[in-house]
């Protein structure tokens, strides 16, 4: 089973100019591993806890070298926070409005379970340029309380296939994911991939106090939408 740095790092390294929609967990990971151009170059795509630690360490070194955290509003990425469950719909809208660009959705298992109807909506529209990925780690608030999702082994890829996605599969090996991602991105979609990912170790324990999330986490979606609109307009004018 792969870790979250592998899962997101492969997307960052090989997505090219694809537009990217992500949910809260992957949003935080992309924040840490990507540069201002939306690419992850220094992150070792290794499995297990060692790969997770090394990935975060490389991101920390990069941010120290650049003197700041990477910007997130000008690289073709938009986070569907606080629109929990809405990543598929947001990705579908982008895919339909930008048929000449690939759109990659990095969804969460708990988020997708809230809006399973989104799978049928995507399948009904058949966007050829959409790659829909779900991070299946079996938890919500992963890295904090790691609360279990409502079902232990929901078959997301099987459901996506049955509702009408052109292709759907489950991947649980990081090396296979790295080799398979460019092939899946090149397919006519909608394509669905269920990634089996280890939860980030939880932080909550006796004496743990959760810091209040800054308003920025809930304002950024609007800012990213404006930046994405400007990016698309710029590309259209070129």
Tell me what you see in this structure.
The protein has 238 residues and is of the alpha/beta class. The chain has a single domain, classed as 3-Layer(aba) Sandwich (Rossmann fold). It is built from nine helices and eight strands. The protein has helices spanning 4-14, 24-33, 48-66, 87-97, 109-114, 117-125, 156-163, 174-186, 216-237; strands at residues 19-22, 77-79, 103-108, 130-136, 139-140, 147-148, 167-171, 191-196. It has a six-stranded parallel sheet, sandwiched between helices. The chain has a two-stranded antiparallel sheet with strand order 5-6. A hairpin with a 6-residue loop joins strand 5 and strand 6 (147-148). Helix 1 runs parallel beside helix 8 (174-186). The protein starts with a helix and ends with a helix. Mean pLDDT is 80; it is low at 60-73.
Brief account:
The protein has 238 residues and is of the alpha/beta class. It has helices spanning 4-14, 24-33, 48-66, 87-97, 109-114, 117-125, 156-163, 174-186, 216-237; strands at residues 19-22, 77-79, 103-108, 130-136, 139-140, 147-148, 167-171, 191-196. Helix 8 links the parallel strand 7 (167-171) and strand 8.
Sheet having the most strands = 6 strands, parallel
CATH domain fold name = Rossmann fold
Determine the mean pLDDT. 80
From the alpha carbons, calculate the radius of gyration and give it in angstroms: 17 Å
According to DSSP, the number of beta strands is: 8
Helix-strand pattern: HEHHEHEHHEEEHEHEH
CATH architecture descriptor text: 3-Layer(aba) Sandwich
What is the 3D shape?
Answer: globular
Order of strands, main sheet, comes to 2-1-3-4-8-7
Give the end-to-end Cα distance, rounded to a whole number of Å: 42 Å
